[in-house]
Amino acid sequence: MSVMGPPSASGRFGEYGGRYVPESLIPACFELERVFTEAWADPQFIAEYMRILTEYGGRPTPVTELHRFSEQLGVRVLLKREDLAHTGSHKINNVVGQALLTRRMGKKRLIAETGAGQHGVATATAAALLGLECVVYMGETDISRQALNVFRMKLLGASVISVTSGSRTLKDAINEAMREWVASVDTTHYCIGSVMGPHPYPYMVREFQRIVGDEAYVQTKELLGGEVPDYVVACVGGGSNAAGTFAGFADTSAKLIGVEPEGGAAINRGIPGVVHGSRSNLLQDDVGQVLEAHSISAGLDYPGVGPEHSYLASIGRVSYAMANDSEVLSALQLLSRLEGIIPALEPAHAVAYVIREAGKEIPLGSTVLVTMSGRGDKDAESVAQILGDNI
Amino acid sequence: MATEPVGTLEKALSDKKSAGQKILVPYVCGGLGDWIETIHAITEAGADAVEVGIPFSDPIMDGPTIQEASQKALEAGVTPSSILSEIRRAGFSIPIAVMTYYNIIHHAGHDRFAKVLADCGVAASIIPDLQLDEATDWIRIADENRVENVMLAAPSTHPDRLRRLAESSRGFVYGVGLMGVTGERSSLAGSASEIARRLKECTDKPVLVGVGVSNAVQAAEVSQVSDGVIVGSALIRRLLNGGGPQTAFEFVRELRKGLDAVPDSHLGKSGF
Hints:
heterodimer; A: Rossmann fold; six-stranded mixed β-sheet; four-stranded antiparallel β-sheet; B: alpha/beta; eight-stranded parallel barrel; globular
């Protein structure tokens, strides 16, 4: 049996997961579970999902060996290039799957939350492709630090709703999307962007993202003469690119490492709690109020984490480390200069970990696969500001 | 099979129902302004029980009004224990049901939270994000501590599930009046009377409708089918707009009058 198999009937990975949502949403969760289970066993559905990801999404994405970077660090680093997928990140894999399910359920409208804007752009893209209406909820703070993605969503025909409650970031965008979903669930599918939310979302989104790990498994084996990498590293906010990557390597000898932002490290610094539909590690105060995360990266600026990550941490299959904002900025610059690849701030956390731990946690000479979950264009303006460059 | 003894809240509401009168449960946000005096005032105005919100940072079942109230209360520094100890000190004369989100209970632990509720004289709990399939353990522990956990039923709930849900509910059954979050609406949704009718068909427990019940006219309209109403946002808005206990008293008295004018379906005449 796989370490990353399906969850229990109640949607649990060990003690984590479940379905903590208002009663109004229960029928929709049951319907989605049923439709996803059927579709994921239906060769025609899978063929269409694969066709779109291939012809339209640019899959398979390559694995690139980083020669100069590897030479400097003394470890052999391979990059899974989700930054080269259509829309610029791995998010397209999930939204194509969910948009096809939306059509299968006979619904005509998609809503989504977004932090960095990557999931919002991907959802707007899939909606345009399949002729669905799309509304994206985004915190006011994120709207100002991700202006490019806001404009892209509008070009793609989506409405972007500014969320002004709470910390005005991803957490509040999810709250608002859930409230809207309660009111519109008859006609609307909530396209959650990460491996979180009520069952079946954490499982379903991981399955739609496992293509990242499944491809990388085959690609790295070929590059490494039949071996798997010694280490597989991915950044973790909600944790969708990490879950997808790990799914391809969970049953191999590879050491799996998730890298959290220091200011939003739910696994490293949180305790189990319940928010946004599932039980998982959560940053909270001493009475159970959810804390605000603080990360340079809008996509990881989230106090929770997908339940399967809490499970993988609890059984020791995945180690979760942290990277801080300044390490991340250095990593972004180093990778850009040495390899001509400008990473998004999110995967720059994974790169930062490898830079810091090469020769320490990661012995010299090791092989390391890093998932480059997205490209850095969206962050150019905010990074320039931090680095004191006016653009 | 032994049946659960009827709790304080269910007894109070069932007595009211048997007397041919409609039930009125206003919602007050714990920690918002002069909330203790507000509860005394609405008791005097004819409320049968009060739902007291323990604010949570991420209230996904609440619309803008109750969100704002919760945030204000949190910014003022209230905690679950400060609210519960004030309830204990106040010793209200009508049953209190606390409404909060599940993480507050999960964080405290089921045993500890149920004991604290019981110690503080709280009759019941209402947890909008703890649905039937996840509620088993909390209901068992609440029962052991004589805390009545009220289940919420939605317009979208399937018939067989509605029956199970009503069976699991203690105190009363909370019919969610519309597909949406809390907040005032200009007219009563058709789904409000419909959920009341469906619930009345499958339970003898009191059936109250809340969410989108905004004034005396709407309260009276839905109570032609339900046993009464819960009114939250309409009251909270008045408090957020600067109203105090007197404003609350007047509004609740207005609701009370509206409900008292509903013909009593048991007796076929107006109840007083």
